[in-house]
Design goal:
The protein is mainly alpha-helical. Helix content is about 70%, strand content about 0%. Among the domains are: about 70 residues, no CATH class; about 325 residues, no CATH class. The chain contains 26 helices and four strands.
Amino acid sequence: MTAFLIQNMAPIMFAALVVFLLLGYPVAFSLAANGLLFGLLGIELGLFRPDFLQALPERVFGVMSNETLLAVPFFTFMGLILERSGMAEDLLDTIGQLFGRIRGGLGYAVVFVGALLAATTGVVAASVISMGLISLPIMLRYGYDRRVASGVIAASGTLAQIIPPSLVLIIMADQLGRSVGDMYEGAFLPGLMLAGLYAGYIFVVSMVSPKATPGLPPEAIGFREENGRRGMTSLAVLTVLSGLVGWVVMSGRLSTALEPFAPGLAAALAPPTMNGADFVVLTMFVAILFAFVVAIANRIAVRTLGIGVLSKICQQVVFVMVPPLFLIFLVLGTIFIGLATPTEGGAMGALGAVVLAIVKRRLDLGLLRQATYATAKLSAFAVFILIGARVFSLTFYGVNGHLWVEHLLTSLPGGQIGFLIFVNLFVFVLAFFLDYFELAFIIIPLIGPVAEKLGIDLIWFGVMLGVNMQTSFMHPPFGFALFFLRSVAPKEPYHDRLTGKLTAPISTAQIYWGAIPFVIIQLIGVALVIIFPQLVMHYKGTATTVDPSKIELQMAPPDTPPALDLR
């Protein structure tokens, strides 16, 4: 029996962890308890010395001093403040009006706003609950199929899982030993791709079953001009003009044109040397700034002179869209172009969210208290799981568990492809029972080194698993996004606030059936990331290729200066 335990300590330890989790014990305590119990057993069996566990304090201190993890409370606080400041409500109302009578318009609006909220909040719960409270009653009011409505709301809320500044991407980068900025840049296109796939599904449903996704009735469309028109031409012209101004400024053409007349101003407006990503980000920022200035000038002209050139819908879209787009640039833009680290970007985003709430006159002591409490709770939850994972991994590595996992995975048939298929199926099944934090802390440290040994780029690997782990929010019956939606969806018949009609509730079965098509879409997204790796690998064209974990200082001979070997 003793020989069997010594030879199979690693698989027994992993199986014991699975049993603890299935019994319902908290993840952090299950990890730590397994690590300590099997550590004592390993000492008793002579697998390693008692002083092996003396590394625990250093590991715990390493977690607490990890500056990268500071981004987690910053982005959580930013998302909670924004969710309570009414930004989601303003966006959903305005974008819904923008699509008007187009079939599936409210569905497109939910997907669009879900992507914007994901890029500004990074918190799935805030996105799902906000859109469930605001858009679900409107979709039911105008006759949307309950399965389609609940599915698109839950799925769009989970975009906060993969579109930066996602919390799970921070954890993923930390566990894989890679840059958070690279992980963010690599995940941006796959996140937008998923949003496009969701919108494509709404389009297909609107074509196949028009009654399931009706457009808004004429009486529900506001922001009309005095002549009864919607004023969409004004919005189209301003969009094109703003994009053109942004391109002229950032391409250097404005600086070149001004140089003969005002050399000093031309030098000040000369754009810096940029790569492709920097150019796109800064061009968008200039375009947004120009549109906002035009809208402000138009409002002043209307109030003072009684004339204006922008339509009501155009002004509404600009004033509602500029704050979240500015926050996106403040957080992601500064990270992408190298002006700020993810932690610094999160700090600026948190401050920007507070300023936005003050401008909207929705910031009070109660809101700050709620956001601070929820941030502390989520951050403590993440840190305790990470400490438990450090205790578990110390013993697991001590009994050569990493070698067992490496041998198990590298011996799979098919090389890289076989490994990727197995890992994705494994993570997909585990997502039925574990959430993304638990998957990131338990599974990623075990399979990450194997992927690196097989020559797989870890940023691409992490983004691919992030898209896969997104299904953990949508899996019936344990998906957290489904729980969030169930908590705010009507459980009993109710009278609609606007029409006064008695509206039927949404059943749990309808929420589950509505989620299944989007789980399939997410799996299609995983396949596309595997088939088209350039969706992620474009980050290599704009980011440093130096891996900080592989920087080594080597001693040189006495007659030569020390050499820094960057490998």
